[in-house]
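Appendix B, Record 12. Input sequence as logged:
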Amino acid sequence: MRDLIFKKDALYKLSANYVPERLPRREEHQAEIFRTIISFLEEKMPIKAIVLNGPSGTGKTVTVKKSAEQILKYCKEKGIKIEYRHLNTRFASSDFTLAQMIALSLLPNMPSRGYSSRELLYAVFDYLEKSGNSFLLVLDDFDDFIGEVRSKFFTDLLKISEEYGDRVKLILVLIGIQDFSRWIKDSWLTHFMLRMRKSFTPYDAEEISMILKDRVELSFNTNVIDDPTIYLIGRMTERFGYGSARYALELLLMSGLNASYEGSQRIFAEHVREAQYRLESVISPTDLKAMFSQDPEMSKLLKKLLAAFESSEEPFLSLKLLEEYGIKIRESSVIERLKRLHLEGLLDYNQQQREVALIGMPLKLLQSVFD
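Logged structural output:
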């Protein structure tokens, strides 16, 4: 039976591990990483460790993976021999386990027991020297590793690299949330670090919408979700998900699953609100009742807002429409209450666009407050 919501392989294409064809708002980052690594390979620049940092979900990993695809294609066309590995150091508990991960990624049949971390690294460099391959090594979540482990790994790796000199080209890309290069006091080590000019900053609602529209096209059937509902996810992500694309993708997936479970052919704003409330409860019915006890007029306003949202499947309602439900938008007291509900996380009140959306809880839950 054909799924009403999802296309084939949708769950994978909505995951953070999927590398899409296009990276909205990260094209310049991708180009800078590509140019820098090619310059290392072609000896136009001295080789350094590239350091990328920024908040979670800002596209660091996917941009590096996309850049690596481009680099491998370039190397194949130019006849440059290169090995590429992308490893997550979150799973390494010591210098030895990290060295073991790297060695086994290149030499899967190597018996790693009985070796020290330095001996494993020497084995890696010996293999690269004999094969004549350069090595592009990406270490993800490297700040977690450096922060948790009293590590000599970086020092050992660079010292061994210097021993092999031009015989082995090792290109490191180190990814983290925090700028861990500031933790390293040894000037000899910091000399090998290169920070990218383009920083990874949180996405805003418009940028999230661009990312999601691409994934919607890949993952959902035609006309399953409209642009205003996608933008609703963008607003929720900007406000509650700290601009993280991972948060947005999870919200989109959960919304689709909600719609699919109901047998709906479309994803509506209520599916998104239900998904967001399960993901995190920003405001509860108890919070609202406490607010009503302090301000009885807030209860009257919310009843009118509830009636307005129940009347429409649109995620964003114009202030003009709210007036039809007896909400006197021109009164300063009403504006102040709308602003408070915005700050509390129940509403997304946009004065510039003169519209408002319910975002803090599903309609069904808001209805229960007045039962």
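The mean pLDDT is 93.
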